Amino acid sequence: MEAFRSQIILGSVALYMLMCIGVGLWAMRRTKSTEDFFMAGRSLGILVTSVAVFSSTMSGFGFVGGPGLVYRMGMSSLWMVVCTTIGFAVSFHLIATRIRLFAELKNSISLPDAVGSRYGSRSTSFWTAVAILLGVLGYLGTQILAMATVLKSLLDDSLGGSLPTEGIPLEACVALSSAVLVFYCVTGGIIASVYTDVVQGVMMVVAAVLVCLATMSAVEGGFRGMSETLVRDDPASIGPWGTLGMIGCLSWYFVFALGGAGQPHVITKMMMTKRVKDIRLMLPLSITGYTFTALLWISIGLAMRALVIQGNHPDLTEADAAAPQFLQYYTHPILAGLVFAGLLAAIMSTADSFLNIGAAAIVHDIPRALRGRSLKRELLWARIATLLLAVFASLFALYSGEGLVGLLGAYGWGIFAAAIMPTVAIGFNWKRATPLAANVAIITSLAVNFGMMSLGWKLPYGFNAGAFALLLSLTLFVGISLASPPPKLDPEIEAVMDL
């Protein structure tokens, strides 16, 4: 079977690609309106929604970027994993029930729709849509770069002898993987995404456990052997703060624990449930699934670093190659095929979610905020916007100047956290919050995040820029709301907030 390893892995990936095309065509028959395209008709059950929530959070950020961060920084990125589960609890407690009720009450088909209803302000809906669109470019770029990284590793290994030294260009892998993604997204919309999430989520929970066991077999002495090797090489990497340091890790704790309540691709899925009462069962299912899949993030990164230090594997030219390299060389071919297919499934279903909310911002939210009405033939324009957004995100991923998937994902997470968390997580629970405060918080957070990125500014002690922007936006949001006259709320919105 080892002799056919490459064929087995490529065959598994090819079968998954065919499944994507089939699901896209099936979902296209069920997508008859923009409500279906963006909101799945608000008809999803508990299992489908729960799996969609945790899998869209993990995605290529966790399955490719996560092991890369562990390989590069040691235990630092574990603060992301632990704190994201706290973020689930914060999100469900503060947002889930209210936003589902807002969606039904005002027939909202997007997060900016619900924000506009809460604040009674088209300007707040507009700035929320702008924040989502800008954040999508960074986070969607993460998914596309992760897809291309996995595909390049597979093709380079399978076609090794017939390729030049550098292998297949990354740009070609971006183009190929994006083409499949665009077909899948344009035809099926969010329906295609959430239903493949179920299959993909179950696959990845099983695969993560098996891969964790495989890492223990690949390194002599299991996790104890990994720890001893890493301690001899760099004691800081295996410590509680990793190589990033205490301040940097605590800033990640802040932005990933509180910032989880500002992730639009997760919040939007809370609006899709069939019944409001289903929400209370979704939280434990989502946290359990995420916890199991996080085993892959942690175990592969530690194992690959130990293998390289021991001289049993060549040094990685790119940290993001940690997961593909381990699966290629240290797992059973069938398991490798399963995980590679699951990796692409996780990445593509999450990328579908980002394309979906980004397209909604372009064709639904921004036009309604500026003109007071939707575009004609909105479903057609949604599909066109999906295509264009995928092209721009691909270019951003290739030429943003930061090739590490995990850091690019953290950047996108930080944009969403700082812009949306105060407006939604606090604003949906605090009647005193005002549209002016929300607008200033969003604009300031975007200016800080993009300003620091474009100018290349770094905060001392590894403090995360997204965490700094979130602190600033929270302070402005609360301060301006307290200094402004109490807002007049829609009676129906006020009744929901009183629940």
The CATH topology name reads Sodium/glucose cotransporter
Radius of gyration: 22 Å
Shape: globular
Query: Architecture, CATH level 2?
Result: Up-down Bundle
Characterise this structure.
By secondary structure, the protein is mainly alpha-helical. It starts with a helix and ends with a helix. The chain is built from 18 helices and no strands. It has one domain (2-406): Sodium/glucose cotransporter, CATH 1.20.1730. The protein is 77% helix and 0% strand. Helix 4 runs parallel beside helix 9 (246-257), helix 6 (122-158) runs antiparallel to helix 15 (405-426) and helix 11 (279-309) crosses helix 12. The model has no long low-confidence stretch (mean pLDDT 81). It has helices at 5-30, 34-39, 46-73, 78-106, 111-119, 122-158, 170-218, 222-233, 246-257, 264-270, 279-309, 322-330, 333-371, 378-399, 405-426, 435-455, 465-483, 491-497. It is globular and about 65 Å long.
In short:
By secondary structure, this protein is an all-alpha fold.
Which terms summarize this structure?
499 residues, mainly alpha, Sodium/glucose cotransporter, 18 helices, globular
Task: Record the SSE blueprint.
Blueprint (H helix, E strand, L loop, with lengths): L4 H26 L3 H6 L6 H28 L4 H29 L4 H9 L2 H37 L11 H49 L3 H12 L12 H12 L6 H7 L8 H31 L12 H9 L2 H39 L6 H22 L5 H22 L8 H21 L9 H19 L7 H7 L2
